[in-house]
Amino acid sequence: MPAGLRVMGIDPGLTRCGLSVVDAGQGRQVIPVAVGVVRTPVGAALTQRLLELSQAVNDWMDEYQPEVVALERIFERGNVSTVMHTAHGVGVLMLAAAQRGIEVHMYTPSEVKKAVTGNGRADKKQMTAMITRILGLSEAPKPADAADALALGVCHCWRASTLGYEQRLRSNTLK
Amino acid sequence: MPAGLRVMGIDPGLTRCGLSVVDAGQGRQVIPVAVGVVRTPVGAALTQRLLELSQAVNDWMDEYQPEVVALERIFERGNVSTVMHTAHGVGVLMLAAAQRGIEVHMYTPSEVKKAVTGNGRADKKQMTAMITRILGLSEAPKPADAADALALGVCHCWRASTLGYEQRLRSNTLK
C-alpha cells in the first residue's frame, strides 16, 4: 500500500475551485491534511481569474508539496460558457502540476462516487456523509466543492492502493 | 492610429498552435515581424503538451514583447476531445499573457474573416491571398495555422485603429 502518499484533490472551476490535500495511511486509512475553496470574481476579466487561480494552486502546492494531483474530468454538459471557462481553468491547474513534475490523474464524477460509496450514482448527501466518516471529520465539509475535492483525494488513494497491489501481484513481490 | 502597436496573434491548439507578431504601421499598414507554428506530440501526456505550449509562448513573448494578444475564440463544435484540449491550451496561453500584464482580445473566426476580406465567410484561399497582399509577403504563409495567426494580428491592428479613431472622435481630440 502506498502509505504516506500525499494527494491533492481538485474539483476545477473558476467561480469556485475545490482544493484538498490528503495522505494515504495504512490499509484504507486516509488522513485529511487541508481543504478549501478558491473563488475568483465572476465580473473580473478571464485573464485575471486564470491568474488568480494559478497563484492560489501554486501557493497550495508550495505549502503542501503533493506528489500526485487527482483532478475531476470535465464534460461538455450544462452551460457552454461555464464549461469553457472551467476547461481554461483545468489548463492552468494542469500546467501548475506539470511545472513541478507532479503526476495528474483524472477521474469522472461517477468513478469518484463509486470509489467512495460503492455507487456511481450516489447523491451529494451520501457522498458528504461517507467522506465525513472516512476522514473522521467532526463535521461535514462545506461547500460541496470542498467535499468533492476531498472525495477526489480519497478516490485516488484507494485506486493507487489497488494499483500498487495489482502491480506487486503481477511481479510476485506481494508479501 | 496606434502606429507601432505590437500585436501577437494566436490561433490556439495543442497539436498545432499558430503564433504571429505584427506591428501596426501608419494608416492601415501592418508590418509582419514573425510567424510560426508550435507543435506538441499527439501521443504525449496532456500535462506535458500544456507545459511545452506554455514554454513556447513564453519564449515568444520574451523575444518579441507584444503589447496585446489577439486570440481566436473557440467554440464547442467538432471533435469534443479536441475542443477540450484546445480549451485547456487557451487557459495556458491566457495565463502567459496575464502573468505579463498583456491585454488579451478574443475574435471569432468570422470577425477575423470580415476584418481581413470584408466577408465573414471567406474561405482559406481568399484569406491567405489577402494576408499575403496586406503584409507584402513574397509567398503565402504556410501552414493554415500560421496564416490564421497573422490574420488575427491584422484584425486586431485594424480594429484597434478604428477603436482609437472612435474614441478620439468622441473626445473631440481627432486631428
In short:
Chain A is an alpha/beta fold and 175 residues long.
Tell me what you see in this structure:
Chains A, B: Keywords: Cytoplasm, DNA damage, DNA recombination, DNA repair, DNA-binding, Endonuclease, Hydrolase, Magnesium, Metal-binding, Nuclease. Chains A, B: One of its GO terms (biological process) is DNA recombination. Two copies of one chain form a homodimer. In chain A, β1 (6-11) and β2 form a beta hairpin. Chain A has one domain (6-170): Ribonuclease H-like superfamily/Ribonuclease H (Nucleotidyltransferase, domain 5, 2-Layer Sandwich). In chain A, strands 3-2-1-4-5 form a five-stranded mixed β-sheet, with helices on both faces. The model of chain A has no long low-confidence stretch (mean pLDDT 91). The first copy, chain A, has helices at 46-64, 80-99, 109-117, 124-134, 144-170, and strands at 6-11, 17-24, 30-38, 68-72, 103-107. The N and C termini of chain A lie close together (11 Å). Helix content of chain A is 49%, strand content 19%. Chain A is built from five helices and five strands. The relative contact order of chain A is 0.20. Chain A has 175 residues and is of the alpha/beta class. Chain A is globular and about 45 Å long.
